[in-house]
């Protein structure tokens, strides 16, 4: 039974304390580079100091150096000019060094964030991925990551420098002239309220931009993934219309955000220009009244230009900061999501097999070498080296989220080495049972055990090596056929891969390809047929040599010749192992030792294929209908 569809906006809802968690996330990313951050802070402080001190030397040159030079002593003027030039050069050198170091450090931080996010997304359980969409997660790793990178690389240094520069300027203004400094500080009152208002409105606006661009990416990824259906049913206009609607929301969100930036920039510049005008008027009056010097007034005017100049930079940085902040909140929400299926704190191991069991690599080689000795019953020489494991579902109840029970009070035992087929209508609970056995989900109540070890206590690495699932759509990664087979055992050599492919009957097909085992299967294995892709998945299983194999509609999309070929491979792959086969095609059921007919999450029939066929139950009716369809 498939998972009930959940509104895709649900995973976009942010907790109320997400801003705090985003800041904590950023701090955790910066902490390994704390020494470099402190060093950069020192450089930024020195850069700001050298930038600010320049007008002091100009004031000294005007009020002290020029008069003494007129009197025949050019020394003070030369020293003041030299100090100004030196401070300018020093600030330029420090700015270059800090910009370079900030860029390097920012790339390290973003790299760590990207790796951490990707690793966490892979840890999240199947339920999360079924609720979410790949497009949203792509958005987290692309557009959101780019926003954070742009701010850290291009704006963080400018922001810190501007703040320190403004602080030093404020202190210097007080030292130069207190009355004029008070006039400047009066302009901070409206600036404070303007900034506070802009911060709130911009944060909301940029949260909308991150959500809306994620929807655009979701739609694009979905359309490209289903391009065959789009073109086959001529849905291009409809998809364009939907994209237009989503893109309009993104455009409108960006327009609102930029409108807020323009509003913030306009008001800050207005306050700055009014303040400069007032300073010129008040300063001129103080010079006329001989309460201050012309050099001090000149320094004040230069400082005001430098004071409100950084404000313009802060407006631009504020824009990037809000975008990066909203993006970081989205990523923090993903990283704050805990998997519902968690690894045990104190993992247990499965008991050792009673008989020696060789590795998957050796089994593949043995089977390939002894394939000719396979008897008429389909039992290969590998059967003596493989052992299945028992599966028990004890008082299991399961539901997806708050939905109705899919498996109400379920009990089942599958002895080691038994092949069990699950049959029933869509929604009967077959796939849900398979997901519990493979621990893609945990039961709401009860226990699922392998050899009496609860899956919730079992070491995850051993679970994944002991239980392998093959679905109806065998996913192939871009790369060679050999690499795709080797997924079953990354340490396998070329001989192991050849042996596995030979064992499942795939080798003749591969040898007819242009590059043999080095043939690129292209995107999602598009170069191979459905049957060949499924044989690749069986070769993976054979190479992995698990204890338990779960097949979920593994022959559903195959034609009859391909199905027969796959069934022949199944006899080899499943020999000596415990297996659960979910199938609508009853031809696949014939290899099973036992058939379970499910209905509404319950087993209504249980027996061997021959016993159920000879009876008068549901399976007998299904088998008769299937036989009649072949006539």
Outline:
The chain is an alpha/beta fold and 631 residues long. It is built from 22 helices and ten strands.
Protein traits:
single chain, about 625 residues, alpha/beta, ABC transporter transmembrane region fold, Rossmann fold, 2 domains, 6-stranded mixed beta sheet, 4-stranded antiparallel beta sheet, about 10% strand, elongated, disordered N terminus
Describe the structure.
This protein is α/β, with parallel strands linked by helices. It folds into 2 domains: 17-335, ABC transporter transmembrane region fold (Up-down Bundle); 390-630, Rossmann fold (3-Layer(aba) Sandwich), CATH 3.40.50. It is built from 22 helices and 10 strands. The strands form 2 sheets. A 6-stranded mixed sheet has the order 6-7-8-3-9-10, with helices on both faces. Strand 9 and strand 10 (602-607) form a beta hairpin. Helix 18 packs parallel to helix 19. It is elongated, with a radius of gyration of 35 Å. Residues 1-11 and 355-386 have low confidence and may be disordered.
